[in-house]
Structure formats: C-alpha cells, structure tokens
Fold these 3 entries.
Entry 1:
Amino acid sequence: MRSILLSALAALMCELAAVGAEDAKPVMGLSTETWDFGTLEQGQTATTEVEVSNKGNADLKITFIRSSCAACVGNASGASQVKPGGTGKITLSFYSKGLLGQQGKVVYVHGNDPVTPYKAVRIIGTVKRTPRPEILVTPEVLDVGLVRKGEGVVRTLVVENKGEVPLSISSASGSEACQVRLPDKPSIEPGKKLDLPVSLAGDKLNGLIQEYLTIQSNDPIAPSKTITLVGYAAAPGQASAPARGVTVSPVGEPVKVPGTGGAVYRSYQLANHLPAKVTVSVAIGEKALQKVELAPGQTTEVEVFRDLISTELSEKAVLEFKVGFAAVLPAR
C-alpha cells in the first residue's frame, strides 16, 4: 500500500510540474502607448526610451520592431531579453526630414508573448519649418570615370539652395588628391544653383579612385556635406582600356542610430566597371538583405537603412557586399 501511495504521489508531482511548465509564459507590457515628441524643426530627430516590462513567469524576448513609415525607427538592444518581473528599455526615434505639419505614426514592438505578440506605440507631434537655407549637392557620389595617371581630371558638382533664405558656403576641402576653388564669398539665392569645379591631381591617383570633398555652409540642419569621388586611374599604356572592378561607395552623411553609439549610411552606390553582368548580394552577418544585378557599366544606388535598423546592430556587425560574376569574361 505504501509503495502504491508513493507512486501515485510521484505521478501527481510530475503532472503538476508538466502543467506548470505549460503555463510558463512571458507577459509583455509597455510604459506608454503614446509618445508625443512635441515640435521639431524640419530635418531634426527626436529620440525617447520606452520601458518594457515582463509580468509573466518566463523570459520575454523582443524579436523586432517595425514601423508604419521610414520616419520611425526602433532599437530593441536594451530589451532583447527581459527576465520575469524585470524591465528593459527600447529606443524610438523620429526623423522629420521631408515632413511638415501634424504627424501621427505607429511603431509595433513584437515579442514572444503568446497572448499579445505585439504592442503598438503611437507617435504624434508637429514638424515646422522656419525659413532657412537648405543645401543640396548633386551628385553625392561623383563617378569621374577613367583617368590617365599623371594627367588629372576636372568635374563639376552642382550646389543648389532649396531653402527660403540665401545659402552661404564657408569652405570646401577634400582629400589629398581632391582640390576645389570657391568663388569669393559664395552666396546662393533661394532656388538658385552654383556650379562647383572639382579637380583631381593625376600624380596622386593610382588604380581605384575613392576621394572625398566636404562642403561647409550655413544650413542649420546639414552644415557639412561630404561628397565621394570614385573612378579608376590607369597608366598611360593602359589608358585605352576601361576601368575594371566593382566599386562600393557610401552616399551622403551617416545617420546616428540611438542605442548603438554609432551611425549607419542610408544607402550605397554600386558601380560595375567589368565587361559582364555582376550580381551583388548585400548581407549583415548571416542575414541576407538584398540582391542586385548590374549590367556592364551600370551604376545604381542601394538603400539599406530600413534593413539595418530592423537588425540587432552592434559594433561587431559587418555589412557585406558579395560580388559574383562569370569566371570567363568577354574579351575586350
């Protein structure tokens, strides 16, 4: 009889343990469901932190954060895993570039809560625009093509004032091989443009060209603009041959990503200087982001910003551009 009772008690304890294990689950909570960022000047960025709580009895994992538009960005690195009874923090950012007036956006925080797999945070506020200068430089990546080594090359950038008051350029400086001459006290009226000649010293170029030029102005939102110059410098005996290889160049200024302590580029320019079609696969770690095909001589811009911010970024994260093409290329 005693052995029967012990067996029954053991079976009951195992059953209770199994039921307890089945009932173990995380419960996600947020400290707020609405973030009012107030009033921003167009082009500025607002950032806030939202506390994530776990009122369940199993670990809560924040899997990803998605948004209703590109203006809203979330980073869950501070709350990727929250213990039962614990809290963590996610960082939300709102980028006001190109927006104006009353704003109403939504971000969705996804986790492993089986009952409520995601929660929404509504983002509201106002974007205003005070009359100001606004600089636009085109192109942001200047492909100078094939350059004869030792001869140099001159190309033209276009600086435009998209604002409402005059734009003043205070300086323009570049890397060692890059030179630019500004007119005296250059000022660009609203809606007007200025052609800016840029020269590359041929004796300082060899092989693939990747130089830069930085323009300083009185634009309060973007006081510094960096332009990348790419191409290929060949020796005189090789000058008749086209440039070779595939180049990858960042476009524009890097954007700070809250919660990471760093910044990322919104997009990259890819240029195919090979005589055959190439495939460029973009990935971060083991996560594939995009795949692009480039015809011979084709240049294209690849936007990676939204892919990057939906990934758990760290200082060790590596953005990879893997190039594939036929082993046997067409004869020149």
Entry 2:
Amino acid sequence: AKETMKRLGVPCVPGSEGAVPDLETARRVAAEIGYPVIVKASAGGGGRGMKLARTPEELDHAFGTARSEAGAAFGNDEVYIEKYLERPRHIEVQVFGDGRGAAVHLGERDCSLQRRHQKVLEEAPSPVIDSATRKRIGEICADAVARLGYRGAGTIEFLYEDGQFAFIEMNTRLQVEHPVTEEITNTNLVREQIRIAAGEPLGFRQEEIVPVGHAIEVRINAERLPDFAPSPGQVTHFHAPGGLGVRMDSAIYAGYRIPPYYDSLIGKLIVRGHDREEALARLRQALYELVIDGVETTAPLFHALLDEPDIIAGTYDIHWLERWLEANAERFAARA
C-alpha cells in the first residue's frame, strides 16, 4: 500500500519498503530511519501487533512481540517498520471512487483522541486543518483514488505533525466515524456506497461537496471505567437524546442483552453545530440526556473530557488521552 501511495504522490511515513523478514533487517531499517520506530503487523488493525521501540535494545523485544501478536490475531506474522512520530494527530480523508476514473473527497476527520490505538472521539472538520491544507490533501487523495480506478468508499489515513502529512493506511470501506462527515456534507455515505456497488455513477461532483458547520462523534461502549473492562448484561432502561443536531446510532433498547463475545461498542452519539463551540455545547447536553441503565458505559468519560481545556481548544494529539487517563485513574476508580 505504501509503495502504491508513494507512486501516486501521497506523502508517506519513512519506513521499510514492504515487510521486514527478520531481526537483522529490522535493525538495519531502524538505524537508517532513526529511532524511535514502531513495528506494525502488515495484516493488522485496531492497534494489535503494534510495538514501539525507542532504542536498538527495545527493538529486539518489539519485533518478536509484534510478530507473535500478529500471528495470533491475524494468522499472518508479517510486520513492517515505520518512523514513530512523537506528537502527531490522526487525520483521515473520506474518498469515493466510481471505478471508472472519477473520484471525490469529502474532507477530513480528526480521530486523534485514542486509547491503545482505538478511536474514542472523532470530529469534522479537524480543528487544526485550515481550508488551504484541506483542499491540498483532499485533492491529493482524490487524484490517487481516481488513478487507481478505485470503486466504492474508502478512507485514507495520515499522521499529521508540524504541518506535514504521512500516510499510514487506507481502509477500503466506510469507517465507524463516517457519520460526522455525513453531518457536515449533507450526504448519505451508506446509500452512496450501495449505489456505486450497483454500478451507478457518483452521486455528486467535487464542487457540490461544501462542508458546513462542525460535527463530533463519541463512541459509547459497554465498558467499566477506569480499566475499560467489558460490561455485558441486560439494558434495563434506555433513553436516547434528541433534538436539533443530535443523532444516536444504536440498536439497543430496554431489555436488550449485551453479549460478552463481541466488540463492546453499543452506540454512537453524533452532534452537529454551526461551529465547534456549538457542537461541544450540544454534545454536553446530549450526554446529560443519554440514559443507559443496567450496564456500565464510557459515557462518564466524555462528561469529564468536556471540562478539559485541551479538548475545548482542540489542542490534543494521539497520545493525549492515555496520558490523561493515567493521571485521572483514581478519579474514575472512586466512581466505581
């Protein structure tokens, strides 16, 4: 994927050219690009098979551990190595292609609030991307998709630091967080994906996609804070928030039993406002209206985060949440 993106002019993270077959090669690659580096599963996703190495000594352990995790999780222990960026944001661009050389982008999403490489909150547009930068990276992505002859929905993901984008992966599907893009572009991305799969042309032209306002999504998981342990069980009472600019995507109801076997995501709360300040205010109110009894959820986490100056200002990076959780662990333990 990286080789293809480089060929198409998409900026990439410095790293290995394809898979790294052995520890000796890993050491050579790491020395060439400089520490710190991150070892990643080629077939991976969701943060599994990813290990950080800040020194040559750490690389030996990281390489072996990443391969073991990748083999166990994906049945493929192939890994590659990339330069590790210290304080990046996670920016992704939503794209669509018709498979016949036409493609569009629908702007970016900022997914930098993460725990163990799992997205927790997403927003669009990013609070740190200006219109010129948005236009530039969007056009690069749309051009790459068109030249590939790509068909369907896709998300091109980047790390963004010091004004520079670095490609990390492309997800050839709709993402969990696609509703924030729908909200600011007034589109139905699920419908569009089905239309394209049926052989229809793209339902909109690039000039027709004009993002308006700001949207934020928070993932409501059936998990117990502060350790995020799964919290399966029966939902005894459920009330979804509503009103102008509020959307709740969920299949739960009073009496629904959350099983212990699957992903703990039970709902997505999405809000839209004229600007980011209004979206944050609307999210705060919607969280107060949300009621899920019978199981523990991550809703209290978002109540707390909305009081944080960095969240209000939008000045967080992909490591911010884990640092904050470590500093506030006792706060949530007291609630348990």
Entry 3:
Amino acid sequence: MCVRVPSAKAEEERRRLLSKGSVDTGLKLKREEGFVLIPVLSHAETEFEITEADFIPAEGRKTYQEMAEVPEALRALLPTSFDVIGDIAIIKLKDELLPYKSAVGTAILKANSHVKTVCLDKGVSGEYRVRGLEVIAGEERTETTHVEYGCRIRVDVAKVYFSPRLANERRTMAGAVTEGETIIDMFAGACPFSIMIARFAKPEKIYAIDVNPAAVEYMRGNVRINKVENIVEPICADAREAIKRLPKADRVIMNLPHSAHEFWADAIGALKEKGTINYYEISEKDGIGERIDVLKREAKSLGFEAEARSVRIVHPYSPAQVYFSVEFSVKNKSAVKTI
C-alpha cells in the first residue's frame, strides 16, 4: 500500500506522513515518471491517491520471504503481496506451503511491525460471500479498524467481506458524484463506498443495503463513527426487495463482482428516468466487452438505453482474471423520445 504523490510535493507529504507515524519505514521509496510512491501503513490519511506497488526493503531490512522458515525449494512460492486490513494481514498460500503456514505468519509479523494478526485466506464462500479465514500467527481475532482517506471502517473480516484494494476506486467515485444525488448502494457490506461518498461529496441521501446482518451491524457503527447519519441509511434486507420500497435513485452502486449481472434489471428499475449505474465484475479481460454488450441488450429489452461512459481495470484478481468497473449512463427510452 502506498501514496502516489507528484514529485514536487513528495518530500513535504513524506515528512507529514512520518510525523503521523504512517510511513512504512521498512521499505524504500519508489519513483516513477513525475511521481514518488511512498509506502505507508493502513491507517495513513492523505489527500493523494492511494494505490499498490511492490517495494524493495530499506537497507538492512529483510522481507518476510527472506525471514520465513520454509524449505528453500518452496521460497519462490511465497506471495509477493497480501492484503492488510487495519492491523490484520490476509494471505493466500499454495498447497505446498500450507504445512509451513505458521512460519509464514510469524515472518509477516516480524517484517511488519504494524501487523498484529495474520490470517490464511481459504477463499470466499457461503450465502454472504465472506472469506474463510484461519488465524495463523499473532492475536486471535479478526476484528479491526481500517482507515482510508480519513474514513474509519470497523469490520470483522471473517464475518463481512472488505477489500482494501478498492480505496482509490471508492475515492474516484466520490469525486464523480454530483450535489443532491440520491444513491442506492445495493451490496454495501461495512459501508465503505457510502461513507466515502458521504464524506467527500454532497449527496442528498444514500440507501446502503446488505442482506448480511453482521455487515449491517458494522455499517450502523461506521455511519456513526464517521458522522454521516444524516446522509447514509443502513438497511438490512435483500437488495431486490429493499429497492422496491425506496425512492428512485440518480445512481446505483453494484459492487457484487461474482454475480452483479444477475441484479442488472433490478438496478435499472431502481433508477429515475435517467441515471448512473456503477457496475463491478470479475472476469477475464477479454470478456469485458462481451459483458457490456450483454448488459446493454438487456437494458434495451427493458426499455432503456445504457451507454458505458467509462471502463476501468480496478486491479488484477488472478493470473487470468481482472476486477473491472463500468460506469453506465442509463436513460428510459420513452423519456428520451419526449425530450
């Protein structure tokens, strides 16, 4: 995790972050054309873009890969990166490394002083699509507080799915929201999208929905912590049913990457005569265009026109798949004809 700062402002921002104890001093700064990448801890608060990059350890510091007590023949299989949510690290391991999971976890703790718990990620599953986690080193807990762009998100990572890799995506969307929008966040989880928008934009109202009771409990707490109770309304319900009872929206957020397409018609039905849908999915890169075409045809069959205003690769998901987003402009065709 790092902050991408224009070169002219990098030293000033580095010193500010150092004074806050937010710089990961175990890693070297990285430079790219016109920018400096400052490695930071998960609680860093900054006005600049938060992103991900691979860093070289600072002189005299070892990586967790070098420190891990595993057979030399397996060392190359150790992941080069892992998620850090608050002070909890979550790592996926190949089967060959599973007998050494405790050693891997211990090495991560030694190499990252801000990490207090290390969990093995066994994959996403179940009705609520949460990670199966096993604590392999450190404190026996899965609850933490994650900070991004000054927003505080309390979450139990074993009960509610949360991705720190979407921090910049959430901030980008908040910047695109216009004043007075009514927004429906269909699959809100612990509420990071809704809170980011409420903090950095001026929406009229955000309805944050999730079917997972644990997620909604954290959502309510996070809304209070971030002081956006007058904007964000948490709702514990199935999104399909909840949106039938809500006012029509200017924008619908569909962050359910494995099955968002199944709710496309419901999202369209939740919009005003014209509006925006922020759609997320995981697929092979070559399949993005086909998915957009399918969604546009379905919209047309429902009497709407859907145009992709922007398409972004948010981050790689696996060697073959990517996590992508599409911002659709959607209009009721009958309304278009009468204008």
